[in-house]
Amino acid sequence: MPLKYTDLLDVDLGKLGAAVDDWKQAVDALKSLDEDARSGMKAKSDSARWAGVNAAVTRGFVDRTAKEFTDLHTEANSVFQVLDDAHSELLALQRALKALVEEARAKNYTISDNGDTTVTVHECVLRDQAQTAKAGGKAGQDWQSIADQISATVGRADDVDQSVKAALGRSHGNDLHDAGHADYGSLNEAQTDRAVELAKKGEHMSNAELKEFDRLMKYNGTEKGGEFATDFYKTLGPEKTLEFYGSMALDGTAGDDKVRLALTKDLQQSMGLALANATDPDHKHHVPASWGDQMRTLGGQRLHLGNAGFNQPYGYQVLGGLLRYGNYDAAFINPIAGHIVQLHHQNPNLFTLNRPMTGGFDADFGYNPSGKVGAGYDPLTSALEALGHSPEASKAFFADDSPKVYNADGSEYKGAKLGYTYFDELTNKKFQWPMDGSGVPSKAYGVDALGHALESATLGHAYDDPTPTLVRDEDSAKIMKQVVHTYGNDPKLVRQQEILSDSLGRMGAGYIDDLNWGLDENRKDSTFAPGAGIDGHAKFGQSDTISFLSTLGQHPDAYAEVSSAGRVYTTSVLEAQVGADGSINEPRVRDATRSGAEIQGLLDQSRADQLKAGQLAADKEYNDALEKRNGWIEFGTGATVAAGVAFLPEVAAAGVVATAIPVMTETGQGMLEQQIGNVIGDWTEAKQQDSGEDIQAQRANIFEAGHANAESPARRFLINHHISQTDTQLGQDLEDAWGVGYDSGSLREDQRGQLPQTGE
After folding, report:
1. DSSP state of 180
2. Which residues neighbour 578 within 8 Å (Cβ) at sequence distance 6 or greater?
3. Are strands 119-123 and 109-113 parallel, antiparallel or unpaired?
4. What percent of the chain has pLDDT over 90?
5. What is the pLDDT of residue 4?
6. pTM given for the model
7. Alpha helices, DSSP H, located in 353-434
8. Least CB-packed of 43, 290, 481, 521 within 10 Å?
């Protein structure tokens, strides 16, 4: 039976500690007996001059008896080492669990066990708001995080419990008359040996065995320091790793066995995370740097999989399935990704034409059991997905102006110049994207993965991180400047690569401060200019800023992201103008109001023009995108502000990933969070209603709703600081500012923006 969280919470680990002490004493005593037996009885037997029966029987008996003492000591030491490690780990896990439970209770959350090592944390009706605030609680914001942490802790404890049970059984051997079977120097060694033993069975593992393997990889493969992951992969080696995963991927995705498929998906994720762990040179334990060289050599060669049929896969096709999970170090992943791009440049169909014959053309998953972003037959998509989860590596990949050149076998071609950067290559309209779909092949998956890789490079977090932290520096800003210039000035490219428009929207949201600054001509005295010595800011310039926003306005998801981000950022800039004494920097408040409204007007004009060009069908897409982006309010989850970033949480039910938006102030954090929630919530009242088949009516509603959204930050600011909109000069000034700003944005887009794209 799986552990319950209360099992770990309430267990008396003192008894296990006492057992560890007892076994330590037994080990010491058996060591002494072993030494006595070898130096006494066996030594005398070996030196005795026996002949006849004594030589044949007695000496053999003495040898066997002495060996039993050695075996008993070996078994006892193995038991002690495993129990000792288990005791230390369980103590740490119990302490962590107690802290999490105390945190949940302090915030008036309740915890219910799900019976499978996971828990559900519920919000309660708060009886004492003051007590909750004093405890640091924020209702509705972190209950899922606490649930996830408790579940992970209990799951890890359950893995320790099951691993210890299995290790003790293998050490003992279940033979009362024969000691000394498996010998383990640590619990990690026992877990690694078992994982390798199961891996050697390959696709012949039963579902129960595969479930055990997944558990071992999940809870040990990502451990800090990388010991388990490194020991596991070192034992298999690069080639056996690919052969094992490739055969498991094909086996688990064949037919319609949903249980086997689910287990194989878990295997893909856990093995990928473990590989990232093992190949990170910054970890205490890691595989040699030569692993990357060997993977590149294997990448362009065909493997030998027993269940792959006639078309044996290239190493990169199989490796790609693993690379889709994990934050990889640049030293490992970038040469692989670069080699793949270069192979594709030389022969775009090298991998596409090598689909496995098993499962036929309609195979659903290929070497990517997850089924996300392609089937995994072309490793370019997989490599870009890997970069999408590896921010530092992705940043180095796209910022590299002089990439290394690789031979076909993956070795470096020293002294050669590539002639193109990876950014220029992948954003070229003439680039031949591989078909990596299932059923009907699609070129969209690679483009989608490119968007994900650019997100991680520019924003500093994995593209699908549910709780992202915005990390920008000189290199990420340099890449973002390329993104703004390239995509902003080529709306046809964005139309061609439309699937990545949501990524462009999140990138725009992550640099909404610099877009405001760019619109203000990057003036040094601008309200939006970064302070001295602050890295991670890009000078887009006014022309590129207008073109970029105009282009994004043509795409529903991008429009929704930047529109929401604009309101969040403007809200923060307004609040930043309030001094500790309540004084308000009125000129900058007016400036922030105008600029925020200008961005909204620019987006709305682009949207309205796109609607006119694309007819009515397009407008439903915009409304649906806005509904999804702002739907987090309906889930009872507010915005969180920390470290200069406002975080709009993931809306899992709507399929919208999280967005991190820079803010200008953290002062009055709670109030700012509430203000942001109010401003985003105002969209519900302002949203456009269906006006039937009348395009002009639709356009009118776009601008009416846009005006309301443009006004919202300043209106909320006035209300929050008890300033009359009609009876004060500042109130009237802000009303003028949002009107002028909105009209200016609309006019600038009309005069200097991009023409709408219809795909014709």
Report:
1. -
2. 584, 721
3. antiparallel
4. 60
5. 92
6. 0.89
7. 379-388, 391-399, 422-426
8. 290
